[in-house]
Write a structure and sequence with these properties.
single chain; 256 residues; mainly alpha; ADP-ribosylglycohydrolase fold; 15 helices; 63% helix; 0% strand
């Protein structure tokens, strides 16, 4: 899970000023954790405690109100009667990686991923994006090779994964949809040689960089087995104590 949060932090500075290169400082002085990290931790906390996903997401979101949420999500977050709003946005995919790490069967992973999405992003594409991301994490964790992951995700979710980062990069632009983010993030992982290389691939696409790198980072962590210690320690230093406590508890419970 810390791989997703590291991706968010590394990509955060390029969200408003996208780049088209893998040659950039991994932790820019203006890097910070965003809503991607807050909501990923919220999902992890819900899994750890057995609490409702919606209640836990709202608890953490309200605790960190300036993390960079979209306008419709903010309305949902602070509503007295929050209802799902048929969103196909990539917010459902950015927060789901803990599901892929925590549960032990494909069916459970898919069911729980759908639940994490449906609290707000209940459009079919929102559900699909969360499920595809969580299943990619699960398959990577189960030691499937990259071509097997590519084949399964492409077949199950009808995503075009027969592209490369170099194919995508020139024309790709900012896209907040699941359908315009999740396949590209998965390809950034598939084209990588290491955790760091995967995150650099994602950021270099020049789109919604923190979310792309968050999605890619979770899958890459599962596949490569861990996050380099230097990155992990930097992330732990940059998040607040409440987020750090959940990250540590989740790692002990599900990833030790």
């Amino acid at each position: 899970m810390i791989g997703a949060i590291a991706g968010d932090i590394i990509g955060s500075v390029y969200e408003g000023t996208p780049i088209k290169t893998k040659d950039f400082p991994l932790f820019h002085p203006r890097c910070r954790f965003t809503d991607d990290s807050v909501l990923t931790v919220a999902v992890a906390e819900a899994i750890l405690t057995g609490r409702d996903y919606g209640d836990t997401v709202r608890k953490f979101g309200r605790r960190h109100p300036y993390a960079g949420y979209g306008g419709t999500f903010i309305h949902w977050l602070f509503s007295d009667d929050p209802q799902p709003y048929n969103s196909w946005g990539n917010g459902s995919a950015m927060r789901v990686s803990p599901v892929g790490f925590a549960f032990q069967t494909e069916k459970k992973v898919l069911d729980e991923a759908a639940k994490t999405a449906a609290i707000s992003h209940n459009h079919p594409e929102g559900i699909k994006g969360a499920q595809a991301t969580a299943l990619a994490v699960f398959l990577a964790r189960q030691c499937y090779d990259k071509e097997s992951i590519r084949t399964r995700i492409a077949a199950d979710f009808n995503y075009n994964l027969d592209r490369t980062v170099n194919d995508i990069r020139p024309a790709y632009s900012f896209d907040v949809s699941c359908q315009g983010t999740v396949p590209e993030a998965i390809i950034a992982f598939l084209d990588s040689t290491s955790y760091e290389d995967a995150v650099r691939n994602a950021v270099s696409l020049g789109g919604d960089s923190d979310t792309l790198a968050c999605i890619t980072g979770g899958i890459a962590e599962a596949f490569y087995g861990d996050v380099p210690p230097s990155i992990k320690e930097q992330v732990r230093d940059m998040v607040t104590p409440d987020l750090r406590d959940v990250i540590d508890a989740f790692r002990v419970t599900f990833m030790a």
